[in-house]
Structure formats: C-alpha cells, structure tokens
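ESCALATION

Customer reports they have been waiting on this structure for their group meeting. Please prioritize. Original submission:
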Amino acid sequence: MQTSIPNNSIKDNQLSKSMPVQNTKYRADIDGLRAISILAVFFYHLFPDTFKGGFIGVDIFFVISGFLISKIIFSQLEVEKFSFISFYIRRIKRIFPALIFVLLPSLFYGFFVLFPDEFSLLGKHVASASVFLSNLTLHREAGYFDFASEQKPFLHLWSLAVEEQFYVFWPFFLWSLYKISNRKFFQQYYKTNNNLLKFIKQNFILISIFLVTIFSYALNLYLVTKRPGLSFYFTGSRLWEMSCGSLIAYIMFKGKLKINFPNKANATLHVLNTIFIASIPISFLFLSYENPYFTQLLLFPLLGALLLLYSHEKTLISAYIHKLFSIRSLVFIGLISYPMYLFHWPFISFIKIINPIRLTLEVKLSIFSSVLFISFLVYQYIEKPIRASASKRTPLFLFLSFIFLGAIGYLVNIETLKPYLSYKIPESEKITLAFNEWDYPTKDMRELSFQDETFWKLGSKSENNVVLFFGDSNMEQYAPRLSTIFNSNKHIKKTAVFATWGGLCPIPNVGRTQKELQFVKSVIEYAKKSEVKVIVITAMWMGYLSGTASSHLYLKNGGLDKPENLQKALKDFENMLLELSELGKKVYIITGIPYGDDYGPKHFFHRNFTADWKMSLKHASKTSWDSQNSITKKYLINVAKNSWAVILDSEDTLCNRDTCKTYLGDDFPIYKDVGHLRPSYVKKHIKFLDFLFKE
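Update from on-call: job pushed to the front of the queue and completed.
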C-alpha cells in the first residue's frame, strides 16, 4: 500500500495551466479515509490480536488510488490535454522522494546491524523496489526456508509495486478507451435503431472498466482457492479494487447514476450506506484473513469506501459522515499517510530482527510517535518542496538517484558489498557461510511422479527395492548423506525415494491445507506398493506434537493444540504404521534433532542497535532439550511400541550426557539455522542411516 496519489489538496491537485481540470475540488474526507486506513495497517502490525483485519487498509488505499488517479486522467482526456510524460513526471515527484528517504537510510543502517544473509536480502528488496517488482520478488520467496515476514524491512513495498504497475497500465488503458470511443467507425452506432448498440456506444468506457473489474475479481476468487500466495501479490487479482475506484470516478465525472428515489427508498438507502461505511472500522477489528469467506466479506468495507467517495455528490448519504471523516486530526494523518506507511514497517522490522522478543506497549508507543514525527518532517520538508518545484531537473535527478540506489541494492544482494560484521570480525565469515547452506533436492536426485505428486529418488533405476523417506524438511536434511552413499558405491541395488514437504506433519488427517492432506494420502498409497520394503519417517516432531501446533488442523476440527485432536492424530499415526508393518514393511521413526535458538549459528553472535558485535562459540544444554522434548519423545516411543516400528534416536549422534553439539573444532557450525543441520556436516558425520543400504 502507498498513497502515491497527488496530495488531495487544492494546490497539489492543480494541473498545469495548459490542462484544464474538472472535478478536482479538495475533499478533506478522502484524507480522513486515508488516515483511518493507514492507522488500521499500522495498528495491525503493532497489535495484530486486536486489529485482526487492519491490513484491509491496504485494500482501501487501492480503491482511493484508482479513484483519484482516474479522476485526474478523465479530466485531461475529456479536453484532449492528457500527457503521458507529464503524468509520469508527477508520479516521480510524488513517489520517489519519500521512498528514497526510507530505502537509503534503511540500507545504511542495515549495513551496521545485519548478518550477511539478512543484508543480502535487504539489498535484493531495495533492487526490486527500484523497479517496482517487490510483489513478484516476495511471491517467489515464499518458501519454507524463507525469512519470516518480520525480518523483511521492505515487505510492505509489495503494495507500492502493485500500484506502480497499475499506474503503468491504467493510463494507457483509459487513453485507448477514449480513442476508440471517438473513432468515426464507432460514431455510426449513434444513428442505429438498435437500442443495445446505442447503450454500448454511450456507455462504452463505463462498460469496459466494469468488465475489467469483474474479470479481475473472478481471477482473484479463482486464485484464492488454487494459489493463495499469488492472489495476494499479483496485480491482476488486485486490479479490481483500483478499477472500482476508477469506475466511481467516471460515474461522478460524467454525472451518471443521479437517481431520484422515492422518499421511503431513499431513507432505506441512507441506512444501508451508513451500514456499509460503518463496516470499514468493524472490518479492521474483526475480519480475519483466515475467514473462509474473506474475499466475499471484503466487499463490505470496500463498498463502504466507494460510497464515501461517491456520496460527495450528496445523492446517497448525509453530510455528517463527511464531516466525521474531515476532522482536522484525521486530515493531518491523511496528508502524511504515504511516509507513515513507508516508515512504519522498517521501524518494527529492524527492532524485531535485532531483538526478537515481544514488543512491549512502551516500545510500540515509541514506534508510533517516532514514525508520526519523521513522517511529518518528510512530508513538510521533502515531499512538499519537491512537488512544488518547477525545475525540469528535479524529476531527472530523482530518477537517476533511484536507479543508483537500485544498483547499490543489487551489489549488496550479490554480496559484492558486505555488511559491517564481515569487516569487524573477519573470522565470522566461516560461521556465516552456514546460513545459506542447503542441498535438497541434491544434484543426483531425479523426479518421481505419483498420483500428481512429485517425489525425489536416488540410486537404482529399477525401483524394485525402495527405501521410502517420508517427512518434512527435517527428513530432507539427510539427503546429502544418501547422495554420498550412492556416489561412493555404484553397485547398490536399492532406491531411496524422498516424499517430503516443508512444514508437513507426516500423520494422516493432519495438515495446514487440503493439499498437504492429499500429499500425505498419496505417500501412504505409495508406501503400500510391493516394491517399497522400508519406510523411514521423521519430522520436527516437537513442533507438531507438543500441544501448541494450532496451524496444523486435524481434519476440520481445529488444531493439534487441542488435546483431543492431538490424541486422535497420534492414534491415526499408530494405525498407519501398524498397517504398513502388517504389509511386511520395515518401519523406522527418527526422533527429531535437538533444535531451538541455542542451536543456530547466529546464536554465536551478540548484536545490539548500535552495532556492537561480539562472537563466542557455545554448545547447547542437553538437559534443557530433554525437558522440552520429553513429552514428544514419549509419544513417539509409545507409537513405535504399539505399531512394531523401530526408533532411531538422532540425539545419539549429536549429543552426549550434558551437551548437544552446535559446532566442530573452533569454527565449523553443525546447524544451518535453529532447526536444520547443514549439508556439509550431514555428508560426513550423520551415519546412522547407512545400515539401510548395506547389502
């Protein structure tokens, strides 16, 4: 989200003297709507449990953007004074100053306080922001080993990218509609007696925008069920929100839909409109993205925003609502809403990166007041003077500065420019190399398709003697060792098949999505095949069986955090293993590796907000791990006992009586992060699976 619309004031909405403007009178209520939207987003990030639907403020900003930009474009197209060059110069002067001012200081600060992988990611996001492709970059990053959202200071720029992509496409679209509607061959339909053709001609632009809106909304509904991540980031599935604003702008510009309703109907409309507008703050508080009808319910607050924009014509709603949205304090926040949006998330993100604990109320209030103050300064002393500048060099300077900033981001991303830590503690690079180390699928693996699912296999092509490895990324971490085994002995006649999925709980009827449930079913069917002789199962068990896994649902009856669901899942797990054992399969369960904050190589470092870096190597406490994992391990032992499965204890390799190893020698981390072993360690030291492939 961003408010990259010419500021909604008389001065900022004023076009060139050579470009007559219609319907550009200042409306304070729109700034009030902006204020409510940015506050909703800000409070959602600060108080997510209270403002469950605050992120909807982004959707409302999309509506406002489509409305105001289209209104200006229509006013210029109508008098044939629209200029693409002038349009994009105004965009540069409006968008670039504050954006540069948030990207550059963030990159500078990140140099001092971020790890190499974090700094590289920051550079990547600066580079993608410089070409307004943040939404596509973030969509491609949505993998299991991706950084958590709070570790991405520019996560919020996806919405800015969506709007800028809209600004590239939409002016050409509207310009084309005007050109088509004014062509001579189109004029002949005025003379026809066909009422339908007359209606299409007279409302061609309105109908075209409406069809685009319907198509985009239908695409959104489709992607929400098929590819929810893409539906969130894709401009095509967001276009309908902006085109709705454009639709209202055209209706108001042309004076359409001025309907005189009977008094009773008019009173009913007043009530309905008030309800829709009231749904805006209600949605901010209660409309969760997890709601199965979210896409449909989203229409209520967006329709409320559209009615507020349209009702300025005084045809559908009372003037008191406009006065409510025109309160001076709201208007002030609306004016600085763009820099507020740009700055609020980097503030929160950097704090959580450096000190990943729950933010206290005092810290949250400090963040809010700091962002408010900085946003005012940026608006007053950077945005306004630059937008008022008549110099032709200003847009060029901004554009070149933005390209230069993107180039710096690219050099940071490819690690040509390294962070302060690499210079402060040169020996740290031996540790930080582990951060990005991962090898799955290995280069030796080949795809195996089964029931529309993709597995990976190693070894013999005959697949007459298969060892099946089933689980999540904790199973994937063992693949490099198996590749080493097969490469060192080309005569092994067995095949290793990996059926894995990051974050997958390998228990029937348990999953975060329907796709995961189906994947588990497919793996079980494959495991029953006669050529599968051995089945090995593992996962980050404590993450699923500790009684806290609310996101992993048992069927549709809630998460595994409910004791009754957890017990049912354990019984299903036991029955699955028992069935496989009765089919003559040999079944093994690998206990999960010790994991937690004490195990990841970043734990070897201490940093603070002033970049005072220190490094010290340390192992983790075995006693601490046992106290955390005891209940989960007991569950696994009981399941194995009742299903004739065999337990393989990974702790025997990684731990002794007192400690669990986190490094070898004096500079070789065992783990890549808090919950996964690094491949270079696994290849040489994890040997407890070797016996499965001995002839």
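Sent to customer with the following note: Residues 84-113 form the longest helix (30 residues).
Escalation resolved.
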